[in-house]
Amino acid sequence: MTLAGMQTRLDPAELHAFIDRVFGTPDAAACRVVDVLEAQADALAWVRDTTGRYPSPKPVAAAVQEAATGLRGVDDKRDPRQILSTVAVEALAAYMAEPQ
């Protein structure tokens, strides 16, 4: 962050505390969406690292997106990382099995 021409590093915990002070503590729905988005990004990063391709193949990205959309509800207690990583593995396996 640049403040009056000075470079400073903020600890992520300090940054979150600052945001909470300014905007208030996020509600459960916002926290769930962030958890799902992080898990989605991790799943797609795994695909990139595994295949060496960016962006991810469209069918794989679409499968991860569809699964992520279904996980955003605050009442959904499933682990988004576990589900989206499994979806990414299965979708990539199906994509790789198709004749190119």
The biggest sheet amounts to:
2 strands, antiparallel
This entry's quaternary arrangement is single chain
Low-confidence stretches: none
Q: What proportion of the residues form beta strands (DSSP E)?
A: under 5%
Mean pLDDT: 90
Q: Cα distance, first to last residue?
A: 46 Å
SSE string, helices as H and strands as E: EEHHHH
- What is the radius of gyration? 18 Å
Q: What percent of the residues sit in helical stretches (DSSP H or I)?
A: 55-70%
The number of helices is 4
Widest β-sheet, arrangement of strands: 1-2
What structural class is derived from the secondary structure elements? mainly alpha
Query: Any idea what the shape is?
Result: elongated
Count of individual beta strands: 2
Outline the structure in words.
The protein is mostly helical. The chain has helices spanning 12-23, 28-51, 58-71, 80-97, and strands spanning 2-3, 6-7. The chain has a two-stranded antiparallel ribbon with strand order 1-2. β1 and β2 (6-7) form a beta hairpin. α2 runs antiparallel to α3 (58-71). It is elongated. The termini are far apart.
How would you briefly describe this protein structure?
The protein is built from 4 helices and 2 strands. A two-stranded antiparallel sheet has the order 1-2.
